[in-house]
């Protein structure tokens, strides 16, 4: 069980105007929380602060009460592109975090192999990234992220490169697998429908500098009903978000 807390964070590049200001958000155990915002509001900057790649000018980032501000390696981070290494097999791409930690290849491959079926990747172990569809590559990238940290993950627009049908399939798969592995996840998206479909809570980020303007709780049990995006409740959430952004 892990709890992530971002408290009153502000950040500016080289003493320029703040990119983000007074940001406070929380991610609880087994939650999927979305950061939804306008372009230029500082979403990726905030993720870099949370991941420890940038040191906040104000406030802090805490994992289970420990201050991890400016300390990379505590939280896994998956970027928009899958960034799989083309010359490595899927098995070795997924095991990369374990290799970096010093584990032997044989043991690392056994460890990651135990998750291939659960992530819908069975049979791809010896294949290379170019042999997989976009959706399958994203599954492999997510499994690699999970192998880095099984507690908390940051996902930066993980499904944006997929076509509409593939994205719909990935959404269902993602909710199912997240329920199984209980990975607390904070993700960025520009897609309002996606945010409502996947999230337990949504933080709206807007302005320049970017600030949290609203927290919206999605009171719809998971797994979500197939026609949830056609319901009046869904449309009310969407209308509320559009009014606030």
Can you characterise this structure?
The chain is α/β, with parallel strands linked by helices. It has helices at residues 43-50, 90-94, 96-100, 105-113, 134-148, 164-181, 192-198, 232-244, and strands spanning 4-11, 20-27, 32-37, 58-63, 66-67, 76-78, 152-156, 184-189, 201-206, 211-217. The strands form two sheets. It has a six-stranded mixed sheet with strand order 6-7-8-3-9-10, sandwiched between helices. Strands 2-1-4-5 form a four-stranded antiparallel sheet, with helices on one face. Helix 7 (192-198) packs across helix 8. The mean pLDDT is 89.
Q: Mind sketching the topology for me?
A:
Layout (H helix, E strand, L loop, with lengths): L3 E8 L8 E8 L4 E6 L5 H8 L7 E6 L2 E2 L8 E3 L11 H5 L1 H5 L4 H9 L20 H15 L3 E5 L7 H18 L2 E6 L2 H7 L2 E6 L4 E7 L14 H13 L1
Parallel strand pairs: 3-8, 3-9, 6-7, 7-8
Antiparallel strand pairs: 1-2, 1-4, 4-5, 9-10
Helix pairs in contact: 7-8
